[in-house]
Structures are given as structure tokens and as C-alpha cells.
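Lab notebook, design round three. We kept the backbone fixed and only want residue identities now. Task for the bench partner: fill in a sequence for the structure below.
Input C-alpha cells:
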């Protein structure tokens, strides 16, 4: 439980980092002359950041995308934004509005990409609606839509396995699903899904009566949710109720408070309703215990004060003799703590800079080679021009100047860049193509190591994420760079949110 308390203590730090990331994305909207689809993509990224963090803010950006979809008269985008908006309305308790949006979608005309999202949103809608009125029929409808979702998903996909495991946990209460959930937890890595999978495991162990493992996986779920700033979560409330049943009222009160705060901030209506049911009971018992504890503490304080006076009188006799030694010991302890802290920081910094140092060493070596070669070429160029100028052969001078040496040098520079980069990340091209459908994979011409699109994402892999800098290096317009990036995410087989995370792992 140490990691759990550490995560809870750092909760505000994680939130501050998330807010900084959101502000960076918002800055992209200030770029002039953005195309509608570029704005749409930035709004989508902001929605992804807000959807489990602040539902009201997510609604703002989905409505912006809905207006863009209507402006472009794009049926696919209009359906996509309607599904997203319905899910958000369902979260905040606008069930009528959510239902109208879902009824306005023609399921038969939905694309294969949107159909899973549609079924998942319908399942969530009826689940939320059932929680609001307690009627079993809506839970059954939620289960039917989950079955529809499972029927169209690839049975080997992560989403299928997760939804199937959830169904077996909620509906069938199948204990054999334990191995499936543990496999998903290990495969999922450090992603937002980790919190949900861990919560399913905790819920399953709770049903089985294994409270030790139940608490363990609820704690893992909370840690993941806190680190990813997911404020639409069930784990804190679940662990609070477990603590309450075990008589640990202090911990129960802490987590039910945090659960209610998250639900209010994110504006998740069904979470607020659940937390509000138990909050007054837990809080009342906690306050009563605190009152009794304060009384005991007051009595203890009087006794301790008397003992302390006696102790002070006793210690005063030895104070002068031990004062100097105590001061030196304290200084030594503080110096040792500072040294340990600096050592930890140095180790962490050294680990984080290992890959960076490798890239720098490689590129610095080639940088000096290129600079040296360019100096030799310029000297040769200067001598040639000087020689012709002295001989008054201006026609030769003009002929040399007309030669597009810059284009040749750029070509050489890009070849050098390709060679150095692929030396550092030899499997980058293959890894990049693995994310794309077969027909959209990049085929290089004879003699090519990389093309323009690959160079864009090679620069991003090196940590250069600024589209303006990439456009300057490759001699392309900013809009062209944006189009390449949008196109790559569009054809990516992986989830859009994890595209850049996958990119930063390519080529190792």
C-alpha cells in the first residue's frame, strides 16, 4: 500500500503535468491558416485528454468538431462526433439528449471503423441509465449491445478480450476469467486501460471473497487512475467500501472523499450518485471516531505534558555536555541526506540521458564530417570561381553559378541523415509499416533508405516534435507536414491515442 499512498500524495503533481500537456495542444490552434481537418484533429486530441478528466471540456471540443463535420458535410465525421457526444451526455446524466443522438444515427450506414464505437457507446448509455433508475431491463440492454460489439470485433484483439472478460465478470461472474484479466493486465502496459483491468480483477476477487487480493488490485487500479489523471473512476469508491466493511473508517473516509471530489470535478453524474449514497454514513462515523479520539488525545496530552516537564528538567542537566555532539551529528546527517538525494538524482539523470547521449555522439561525429566536407567543397568552389574570374572567363563563372549545387547538397544531406538514423534505429522503417494496412505501407524506390514521410517521423522519433522545425529542415510547407502527420494517424492500425507512444519505441 506504500505505492498507493505515494501516488495519492503526488496526485496534484500528475494533474499539473496533464494541464501543461493540454495547454501545449491548445497552442496548436493558434497556428494561422489551419485547414478544417487540422483543427478537427487538434480538437480530437483535446477530447482524448479531457474525456476521462473533465467531461464538460470534452463536450466543448466535440461540439467544435461537430460544427466542422457539418461545415464539410462529411457523414462519417458527423456520425463520429454524434457518437462521442452521446457518450459524454450519458456521463453527465443528459440521458434524453444522449438517446436522441443515438437514435439519429443510421446504424446500417456506419463504417466498419465507427460500428464498434457505436455499440460500445450504446452499451455504456444503457448501463448509466440503469444506474440512475435501478431498472434491470436497461442493464440487459447494455449487455446485448456489448454482445453486438463482441460479434464484430476480431477475437484476437485487445478490445475484444477486454470486453469479453468484463462480460464474464459482470454477467456470468465466471471465476475462470481470472487468467484472462491477468494476461490483459500484463499485456496492456502502463496505459489508461490498466486501471479498468485492475478494477475488474479487484471486483472479481471481491465476489470470490478473497479480500486481500481484492484490496491489492483496487489499489493498483487507483495508482493507474491517479497517474493518468482519470477522474471518472470506480476504484477509489470500491476500495473505500472495502475499508468501511473492515472497520478501517479513516482510510474509507479518505478514499470516499477523493472519489466524490473526482466525480464532481469530472461531472460524472452516476459516480456522484454512488459516492453520495455512502459518503454521509462513512463521514458521520469518521467524525464520531475523531471526536472520541480527540478526547483521548486531550487526556493523553495532559499526562504527557507532566512527564515532559519532568523530562525537560532531567535533560537540562545533560544538555550542555551533549549540545556540541548533537549539533555535529545533525549536520553530518543532513549532509548525508543531501548526498543521497544528489546521488539518486544523478543516477536518474544518467539513465534518462543514455539514449540521448548515443544519438548526440553519433550525430556530432557525422556533423563534423559533413562540416569538414562542406568546407573542402566551398574551398574548391572558391578556387574554381577565382581562377575563372582572374582569367576573365565570366561565362564559366556564370555556368558554375547556374549549377544547382544546393539541391545536390540537400540530397547528400538527406542521404547522410537517413544513413545515420537507420544506423541508430535499424528497424524503424519496418516498425513504421507494421502500423499501417498492407495497401498503405511505404515502398521505397531503388537506392532510397527513407522518403519524406519517413523522415518526418524519424525527426519526431529523435524528439523534434515541432512541425515548424520539421518543415524548415525538409524544405516543405507547414500544411504539408500537418497533412503527412494526419494521414499517418488515419492509416495507423493502432489506437490514435497511442500512435506517438508507439512511434517513440520504434527501431530499438
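Proposed sequence:
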Amino acid at each position: 500500500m506504500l505505492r498507493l499512498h505515494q501516488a495519492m500524495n503526488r496526485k496534484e503533481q500528475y494533474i499539473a503535468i496533464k494541464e501543461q500537456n493540454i495547454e501545449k495542444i491548445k497552442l496548436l490552434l493558434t497556428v494561422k491558416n489551419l485547414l478544417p481537418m487540422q483543427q478537427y484533429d487538434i480538437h480530437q486530441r483535446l477530447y482524448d485528454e479531457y474525456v476521462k478528466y473533465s467531461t464538460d471540456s470534452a463536450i466543448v471540443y466535440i461540439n467544435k468538431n461537430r460544427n466542422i463535420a457539418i461545415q464539410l458535410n462529411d457523414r462519417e465525421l458527423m456520425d463520429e462526433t454524434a457518437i462521442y457526444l452521446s457518450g459524454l451526455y450519458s456521463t453527465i446524466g443528459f440521458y434524453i439528449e444522449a438517446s436522441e443522438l443515438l437514435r439519429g444515427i443510421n446504424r446500417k450506414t456506419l463504417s466498419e471503423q465507427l460500428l464498434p464505437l457505436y455499440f460500445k457507446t450504446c452499451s455504456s448509455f444503457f448501463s448509466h441509465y440503469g444506474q440512475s433508475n435501478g431498472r434491470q431491463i436497461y442493464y440487459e440492454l447494455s449487455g446485448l449491445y456489448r454482445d453486438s460489439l463482441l460479434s464484430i470485433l476480431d477475437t484476437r484483439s485487445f478490445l475484444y478480450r477486454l470486453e469479453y472478460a468484463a462480460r464474464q465478470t459482470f454477467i456470468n461472474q465466471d471465476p475462470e476469467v481470472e487468467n484472462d484479466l491477468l494476461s490483459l493486465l500484463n499485456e496492456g502496459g502502463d496505459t489508461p486501460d490498466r486501471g479498468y483491468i485492475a478494477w475488474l480483477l479487484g471486483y472479481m476477487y471481491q465476489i470470490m471473497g478473497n479480500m486481500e487480493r481484492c484490496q491489492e488490485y483496487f489499489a493498483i487500479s487507483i495508482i493507474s487512475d491517479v497517474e493518468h489523471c482519470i477522474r471518472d473512476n470506480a476504484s477509489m469508491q470500491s476500495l473505500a467500501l472495502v475499508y468501511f466493511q473492515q472497520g478501517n473508517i479513516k482510510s474509507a473516509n479518505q478514499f470516499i472523499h477523493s472519489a466524490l471530489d473526482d466525480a464532481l470535478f469530472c461531472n460524472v453524474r452516476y459516480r456522484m450518485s454512488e459516492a453520495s449514497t455512502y459518503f454521509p454514513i462513512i463521514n458521520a462515523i469518521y467524525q464520531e471516531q475523531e471526536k472520541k479520539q480527540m478526547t483521548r488525545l486531550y487526556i493523553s496530552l495532559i499526562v504527557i505534558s507532566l512527564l515532559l516537564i519532568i523530562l525537560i528538567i532531567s535533560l537540562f542537566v545533560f544538555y550542555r555536555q551533549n549540545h556540541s555532539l548533537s549539533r555535529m551529528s545533525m549536520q553530518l546527517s543532513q549532509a548525508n541526506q543531501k548526498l543521497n538525494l544528489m546521488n539518486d538524482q544523478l543516477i536518474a539523470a544518467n539513465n534518462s540521458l543514455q539514449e540521448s547521449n548515443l544519438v548526440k555522439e553519433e550525430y556530432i561525429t557525422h556533423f563534423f564530417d559533413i562540416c569538414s566536407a562542406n568546407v573542402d567543397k566551398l574551398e574548391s568552389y572558391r578556387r574554381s570561381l577565382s581562377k575563372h574570374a582572374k582569367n576573365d572567363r565570366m561565362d564559366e563563372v556564370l555556368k558554375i553559378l547556374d549549377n544547382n549545387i544546393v539541391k545536390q547538397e540537400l540530397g547528400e544531406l538527406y542521404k547522410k541523415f537517413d544513413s545515420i538514423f537507420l544506423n541508430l534505429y535499424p528497424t524503424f522503417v519496418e516498425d513504421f509499416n507494421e502500423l499501417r494496412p498492407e495497401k498503405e505501407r511505404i515502398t521505397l524506390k531503388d537506392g532510397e533508405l527513407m522518403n519524406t514521410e519517413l523522415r518526418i517521423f524519424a525527426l519526431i522519433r529523435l524528439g523534434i516534435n515541432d512541425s515548424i522545425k520539421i518543415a524548415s529542415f525538409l524544405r516543405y510547407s507547414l500544411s504539408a507536414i500537418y497533412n503527412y502527420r494526419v494521414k499517418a494517424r488515419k492509416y495507423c492500425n493502432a489506437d490514435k491515442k497511442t500512435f506517438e507512444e508507439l512511434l517513440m519505441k520504434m527501431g530499438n
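Keep this in mind before ordering anything: The chain has two domains: 2-282, 404-503.
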